[in-house]
Write a sequence for this structure.
């Protein structure tokens, strides 16, 4: 006899006086939680199947459904938490690896919530962003040590003109990009929304390991193409179509292992775009099998630069691990134009839970350490640093920039804007919001026109908030905030944390 | 004139359009009261489904409406100004010739009191028909041809 | 105990012990690690023909703006005051006690040939209390290339290169000296120039240093209103480094970014002051990177993107590249600065003009000031008087000393720089 494994986590609280049995919830739930009883005209709900995605609650025309957290309770134990117990039950039953989706949800400290930003008063006027220009334009790419004029004299005159010999740069209208989320892990409609929004707003999105679908060719000017360990979809055309190339060494949610796309999500289209068999699990190798050391990375970087004729920035994405500072230093010297650092809170479509929750370090500390190390070595200007790993609001963006980042990647935040409720079941391909699925019945639910609009609204709103905070600190150009840790103070942090972050404690003046 | 158009690729088969159409044409016009008390509400929009494809269809308000041609009592008329084809219930005798003539199958029999033909009236007094306004995925659009 | 009592006690001890070594680490008491933002007054005069005049005019000018200071800092920079030693570096040094002086002089002798040294003559002024020992030396770096006579022929090294090497040496020496030392501070280290500053109203400081006895062709001055009552003489403006002197009214909100930028090029920001960082920015951009002075405002007070977009392609590309390369040199926050060097005076406002700056010309004299009243005090009827816009510099060279216009060592014809500077008026700091 198979013991029932599924312990309910959620309860569907249905207000019978408001339920009109319209069956919208029955039709919309991909986990078959609700069922219509023909005989008595009522709707019954099977709580154990509910994942807490709120699709039914959101669409119910009378608002009769509330999803509540309700678990069957164990004897209180601060050490053997219910989660540990349930994981062992599952593994004893199946012998498998416990998978999960999205970012680490454990109560490790969130440093963004312990850092406060500054405002100017009296000695230095704050600037009003509604009435004064406030500049947040950002350039990603390698910068030279100093200005060297490559000028030429026009023949027949002695007019000297300026010719730029700057390395290729990405021009962003706001220091926010869309993080790498592959077509396969998310639906084509979701990727289209990201691409269209990036294109319209003047920023970039990242293909992730998914390759470049033909429907997205119109947006290549705003695409960063990724070369990951599985090299899915990578060919010369792919490399040359993007605006920049990113070599993915690691990902914050699962440092040390490669990407994972369960077979349920590999349909015909995905298989074509990634160039893999339909229905097969796409598990990327852990390392790139041609990068076993830093000098191999340097070779790959220059190979990609050759393939793209030195016209596009080539960068490297790494997870934030203990030695991220020396690793970053090595990457700079290997020739990268930008480094993306993904903190341990980063999201994913599928990852083993033990790795997601126990491996890696917070992005705040990683960023501070990398920025400081690169500056000490005098090479900070050679790369742009993009950080990711749970940027949840414009305040996090401002703090990241003040700690030294050039720009941020948003992944989870973008999906939440599209409708995601972070139920962490992305690996099942049953995403009720049409985001992390390839099921055609579900992918219809994400209308790219609506999705694009929501993402544009998100970027617009965050841009305004960033401008307000900049103006409040008396700054009218974001480059004056970059690395300016004088505008940050820690709250409730110990000496060591303050010293690694490189900021003073709240209450200390200049 | 403005008509309702459907984008099949975005219809998610939730049938919220049907629910709101029923409420709009109910006696109480309130969703809870209508669904609890009234028993014979008829939606004028119908969602058709095959596999994962679905779309909502309603009266097309044809230029050359066959139902108007077929109507023996003159109840079914196309308004010259608004272009909307409506059935005057006081004139309708329930012969169902319009249902037979309609190439889209979007007219239904309303048997609640007198027997009359029931179909989409573009929610005359609203800025947007309620099905368009309440579609959660913007699959229904109200625009000029 | 409050500041007044403290200084009174010190005075008494001074009298009784007679200038023995009683200050162990006075920098800990006077200089905090805290920045001291301040509202202030600045004033500068240049005679573009190099004609010399005494400090009376500049003292009158800065005195007119008495209310912009609070008596906690005042200072002057003067160029052309040491014609007999014009090829040697003139070091003005503060010592807290004679032990510091002895140790410093030992160090100086190791690195330099000291041609002459004395204490700067001062007058007793009631409001200027507790001066440190103030000495000056005229020095030349020794042991660099065995003396420079005949060196060009011997090792085929140009005079320019020797000069650069010497400058580099002096810069490093002064930087390290000031970073390490607690009891001594090199106030200025340029050729044929000197900085005179201290704690007190600027006009009193001017009287203290007897500035009417000196004749210079460039004078700049500063009165301070710090929001922190530090009584440290070294904290007053101008800040000096090699031949540079900077007086500054304002507070830089991009301080952290600018500081880290210059630190990356080897500058030690030991004093946590905005003026220090500004000085290093000028030294880096103009001396080390060879950027023409007419282009520096496009870096420090860069024009807005929306204005750059309206310009012709070539200029747009150049200004965009400047902003990309020197993004961290953009100075944000209100400022008016007057920068002095042997051959020019340079004044600039922040890009949206949040502090006052007025300029005027009368004959061979050019004045720059925080307030028009100060100019009118010493020159009642100037030929022209104007208010530069945000980001628009006021540059006056000594006649004949304008450098061959160059960028990064490439000598080219004049029209690029001219074309660039020509745009200065059309977009620099367009005010709403």
């Amino acid at each position: 006899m198979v013991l029932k494994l599924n312990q309910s986590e959620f309860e569907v609280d249905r207000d019978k006086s408001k339920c009109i049995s319209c069956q919208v919830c029955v039709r919309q739930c991909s986990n078959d939680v609700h069922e219509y009883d023909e005989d008595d005209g009522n709707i019954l709900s099977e709580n154990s199947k509910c994942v807490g995605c709120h699709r039914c609650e959101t669409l119910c025309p009378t608002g009769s459904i509330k999803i509540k957290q309700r678990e069957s309770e164990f004897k209180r134990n601060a050490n053997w938490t219910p989660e540990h117990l349930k994981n062992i039950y599952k593994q004893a039953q199946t012998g498998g690896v416990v998978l999960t989706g999205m970012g680490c949800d454990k109560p490790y400290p969130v440093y963004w919530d312990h850092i406060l930003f500054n405002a100017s008063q009296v000695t230095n006027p704050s600037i009003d962003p509604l009435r004064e220009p406030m500049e947040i334009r950002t350039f990603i790419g390698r910068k030279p040590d100093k200005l060297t004029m490559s000028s030429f004299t026009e023949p027949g005159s002695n007019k000297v003109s300026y010719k730029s010999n700057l390395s290729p740069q990405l021009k962003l209208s706001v220091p926010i990009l869309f993080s790498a989320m592959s077509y396969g892990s998310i639906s084509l409609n979701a990727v289209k929304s990201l691409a269209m929004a990036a294109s319209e707003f003047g920023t970039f999105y990242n293909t992730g390991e998914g390759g470049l679908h033909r429907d997205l060719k119109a947006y290549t000017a705003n695409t960063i193409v990724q070369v990951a360990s599985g090299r899915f979809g990578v060919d010369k055309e792919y490399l040359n179509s993007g605006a920049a190339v990113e070599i993915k060494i690691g990902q914050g949610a699962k440092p040390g292992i490669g990407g994972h796309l369960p077979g349920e999500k590999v349909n015909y289209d995905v298989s074509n775009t990634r160039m893999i068999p339909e229905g097969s699990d796409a598990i990327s190798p852990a390392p790139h099998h041609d990068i076993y050391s830093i000098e191999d990375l340097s070779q790959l970087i220059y190979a990609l630069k050759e393939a793209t004729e030195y016209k596009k920035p080539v960068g490297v994405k790494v997870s934030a691990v203990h030695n991220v500072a020396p690793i970053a230093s090595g990457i700079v010297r290997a020739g990268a134009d930008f480094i993306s650092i993904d903190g341990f809170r980063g999201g994913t479509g599928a990852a083993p839970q033990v790795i997601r929750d126990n491996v890696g370090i917070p992005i705040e500390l990683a960023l501070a350490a990398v920025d400081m190390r690169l500056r000490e070595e005098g090479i900070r200007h050679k790369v742009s640093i993009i950080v990711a790993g749970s940027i949840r609001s414009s305040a996090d963006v401002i703090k990241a920039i003040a700690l030294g980042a050039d720009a941020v990647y948003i992944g989870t935040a973008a999906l939440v804007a599209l409708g995601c409720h972070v139920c962490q079941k992305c690996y099942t391909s049953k995403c009720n919001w049409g985001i992390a699925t390839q099921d055609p019945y579900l992918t219809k639910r994400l209308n790219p026109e609506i999705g694009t609009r929501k993402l544009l609204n998100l970027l617009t709103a965050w841009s305004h908030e960033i401008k307000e905070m900049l103006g409040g600190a008396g700054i009218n150009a974001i480059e004056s905030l970059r690395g300016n840790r004088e505008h940050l103070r820690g709250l409730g942090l110990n000496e060591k944390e303050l010293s690694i972050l490189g900021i003073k404690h709240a209450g200390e003046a200049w | 004139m403005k008509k309702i158009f459907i984008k099949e690729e975005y219809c998610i088969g939730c049938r919220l359009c049907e629910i709101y159409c029923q409420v709009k044409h109910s006696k109480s016009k309130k969703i809870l009261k209508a669904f609890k008390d009234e028993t014979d509400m008829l939606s004028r929009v119908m969602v058709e489904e095959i596999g994962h494809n679905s779309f909502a269809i309603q009266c097309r308000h044809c230029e050359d409406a066959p139902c108007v041609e077929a109507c023996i009592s003159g109840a079914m008329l196309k308004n010259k100004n608004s272009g909307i084809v409506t059935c005057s219930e006081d004139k309708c005798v329930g012969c169902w010739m319009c249902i037979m003539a309609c190439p889209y199958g979007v007219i239904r029999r309303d048997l609640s009191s007198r027997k009359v033909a029931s179909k989409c009236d573009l929610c005359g007094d609203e800025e947007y028909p309620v099905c368009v306004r309440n579609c959660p995925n913007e699959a229904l659009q109200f625009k000029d041809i | 105990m409050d500041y007044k009592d403290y200084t009174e006690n010190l005075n008494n001890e001074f009298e009784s012990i007679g200038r023995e070594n009683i200050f162990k680490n006075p920098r800990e008491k006077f200089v905090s690690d805290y920045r001291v933002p301040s509202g202030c007054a600045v004033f500068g005069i240049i005679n573009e023909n190099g004609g010399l005049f005494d400090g009376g005019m500049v003292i009158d000018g800065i005195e007119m703006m008495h209310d912009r200071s609070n008596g906690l800092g005042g200072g002057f920079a003067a160029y052309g005051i040491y014609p007999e030693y014009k090829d040697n570096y003139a070091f003005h040094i503060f010592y807290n006690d004679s032990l510091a002086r002895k140790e410093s002089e030992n160090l100086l002798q190791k690195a330099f040939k000291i041609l002459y040294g004395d204490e700067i003559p001062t007058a007793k002024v009631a409001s200027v209390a507790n001066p440190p020992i103030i000495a000056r030396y005229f020095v030349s770096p020794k042991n660099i290339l065995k003396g420079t006579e005949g060196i060009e022929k011997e090792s085929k090294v140009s005079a320019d290169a020797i000069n650069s090497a010497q400058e580099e040496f002096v810069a490093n020496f002064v930087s390290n000296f000031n970073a390490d030392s607690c009891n001594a501070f090199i106030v200025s280290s340029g050729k044929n120039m000197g900085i005179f500053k201290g704690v007190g109203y600027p006009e009193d400081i001017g009287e203290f240093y007897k500035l009417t006895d000196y004749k210079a062709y460039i004078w700049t001055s500063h009165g301070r209103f710090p929001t922190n009552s530090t009584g440290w003489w070294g904290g007053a403006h101008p800040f000096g480094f090699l031949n540079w002197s900077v007086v500054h009214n304002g507070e830089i909100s991009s301080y952290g970014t600018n500081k880290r930028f210059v630190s990356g090029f080897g500058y030690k920001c030991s004093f946590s002051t905005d003026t220090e960082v500004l000085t290093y920015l000028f030294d880096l951009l103009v001396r080390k990177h060879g950027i023409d002075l007419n282009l520096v405002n496009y870096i420090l007070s860069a024009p807005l993107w929306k204005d750059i977009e309206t310009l012709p392609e070539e200029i747009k590309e150049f200004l965009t590249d400047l902003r990309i390369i020197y993004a961290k040199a953009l100075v944000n926050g209100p400022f008016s600065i007057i920068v002095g060097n042997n051959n020019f005076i340079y004044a600039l406002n922040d890009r949206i003009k949040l502090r006052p700056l007025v300029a005027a010309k009368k004959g061979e004299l050019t004045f720059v000031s925080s307030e028009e009243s100060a100019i009118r005090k010493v020159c009642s009827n100037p030929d022209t008087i104007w208010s530069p816009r945000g980001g628009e510099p006021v540059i006056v060279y000594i006649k004949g000393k304008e450098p061959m216009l160059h960028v990064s060592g490439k000598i080219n014809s004049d029209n690029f720089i001219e074309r660039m500077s020509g745009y200065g008026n059309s977009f620099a700091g367009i005010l709403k």
